[in-house]
Amino acid sequence: MLHLIKYNLLVKVKNFATTFWPLIFPLLLGTMFYFAFGNIDDADFETVQVGIVKEEEPDTLFLMFLDQMENNGNHLIAAQELSGTAALAKLENEEISGIYYVGKAPSLTVAANGIPQSILQSVLTSYETGKSTIRQIVRTHPSGLWKGIQKMLNQQEPIIQVSLGGHTINGTVQFFYALIAMTCLYGCFIGFGSAITLQANITALAARRCVTPTHKLKLILSEQIASFLLGYFDVIVLLVYLRYILKLDFQGKIGPMLLISFFGSLIGVSIGIFVGSLGKMKEGVKIGIILGISMICSFLSGLMNNTMKDIVEKNAPFINRINPAALISDAFYCINVYDDLGRYYRNLITLAVMSVVLVAASFLLIRRESYDSI
Amino acid sequence: MSTNIVQIENLVKRYGSLVALDHLNLNISEGEVFGLLGPNGSGKTTAINCMLSLLKYDKGVIRIFGEEMRPDNYQVKQQIGIVLQNVAVFDELTVYENIDYFCGLYVSDKRKRKELVEEAITFTDLNDYRKMRPKKLSGGLLRRLNIACGIAHKPRLIIMDEPTVAVDPQSRNKILEGIQKLNEQGSTIIYTSHYMEEVEQICTRIAIMDHGHVITSGTKEELKKMIKTGETITIEAVPLSPENLADIRTLPHVFDLHYEEQVLTVRCTGARHNLIRLLNYLQSQDIPFGQVSSELPTLNDVFLEITGKQLRD
Known about the structure:
The structure holds 2 protein chains of 2 kinds. By secondary structure, chain A is mostly helical. Chain A contains 15 helices and 4 strands. Chain A folds into 2 domains: 2-40 and 167-367, no CATH class; 48-153, D-Maltodextrin-Binding Protein, domain 2, CATH 3.40.190. Chain A has helices spanning 2-14, 16-38, 60-71, 84-92, 115-140, 145-153, 173-196, 204-210, 216-245, 254-277, 283-300, 308-315, 317-322, 324-338, 341-366; strands at residues 48-54, 77-81, 98-102, 107-110. Chain A has a 4-stranded mixed beta sheet, with helices on both faces. In chain A, helix 7 runs parallel beside helix 10 (254-277). The relative contact order of chain A is 0.12. Chain B is α/β, with parallel strands linked by helices. Chain B has helices at residues 44-51, 74-77, 95-104, 110-123, 139-151, 169-184, 196-202, 220-225, 242-249, 274-284, 299-307, and strands at residues 4-15, 18-29, 33-37, 59-64, 67-68, 80-83, 157-161, 188-193, 205-210, 213-218, 229-235, 254-260, 263-269, 292-295. The interface between A and B is medium-sized, with 27 and 35 residues.
């Protein structure tokens, strides 16, 4: 058996078509995803430029507030003190997004609508709300005034995003999980090649193998194992690339991720062997079928649209229970987002059962050792 | 007394309405180089594929080594080597790796396998090419690799289906010599071909097939004795009138003649002095002539007389 596995593996590794595309295509796609939206959550807005025009009796508290906003490390706004004319000229030239007129009651002048203008309005509103609060404190609890001012100046984000499992909350990783699932399913091309070389009515090479005293099941299993090893290797390379080179937000343990990839590769290869073993269809038709299966499954698991899996879950949840790509990406979610080990193992068991069924069916299809015509 | 190691009785194989094998009967004894000769489409390869249980058949019995041949008769398969018409090797593996792989399907002992692979490489004279991949080999070397993969495990019965198709004469001779050597080493060979010269050269017994059944069989001498033709005389560049042709037709032992574009072909029964008599006639009539040749009957003549068509039709 080892002899067969060794040579089957060697044949596949030396075959450009079975080595290159299942390995390189996912890496290229992963790189593309990375540049397209890998860092979308880190994207920062440009600091909003604002002019300050002091009027008579300026509200010094507002000036302090702006100073604090400018220097708190968020770089939300950058304020510059200007004369009224200079400020208007700069606003006209779009060098600044707005002008704070700081008098007894601060006001904002903008020349357009947009995010920078909204931010400036928010800052002003926030100040006015805070000022009103402080007045309230002075009236009711004057002793807590300083504490209130400090609180107001050290404003924090009102909402902090957290993962239920304490892991990643990056929504774009869904694309990468679907990509890993697709790579697992790409093992079907390797498995398909194996099935073709086992049918005497298709190739002379298969005919030569079929007339030997080696049992057909042994031939199939050796091909399955070799195909799986190669497919699994491809997935591991992708996983390592995404996690350690692109440094994507995969915070789960590597062990469970390798386990998902293991069963994912197994199902991919099994699908290929099964389709390759089907009846008298032409090779091109069979290739079309496995290409269709891998792409449709990947699409439904969210490869092209990260909401697709949810849409399927709402409308036809059964598909998510049997779609290998959805099961694989869901298993990744279970360890990286939900921390739901029960669901994780349920996905793995489903993949394993499906693989066993497909391999058994392939054996039943191929074991027939005499053909009507060759 | 020799034992029949292959027995085929009333084998019928149909592809729809086409009868590929029509009650084929064959008996092949141990130690023979048995030739299956026939034109393309006569059923040779179909017969081989049925023998190997690759093809289902409609009727008949095939016994090899006394046992009925079935797809799962691994004991019988263990003793058979196969060299298919199409080269069946892995393009991705080297010469050595290919032979080792196929030998490994029969022999699991690693040390023994290594010896056998080395022997097969030496036997097929592929030592200088052992690290080369098939795509870099010439047609002849590729055929030799195809043979090495089929014989490395030293089978008792070797089935070779047109192993010299598209091979240069030098490589063909090497292959034929190799087959004779394998036979001397104890293997029984079944050799199919539509090249009558090859079959004549190496086969100890021959069956001529046409339309899916054996039309005659025997040693080459026996086959040639079955037909009328004893000698075929060809004379080129000879101008003959209808009267001359009528005269030649009446010469003793002449039973058939053909005259076209000044080339005269005369077929005589197996008697002596046919050529001298013919040349004497031409001299007596003062008829000039060019190149003269005389040939003993070939298997093609046998086929021609029995079926009325050429083997290579």
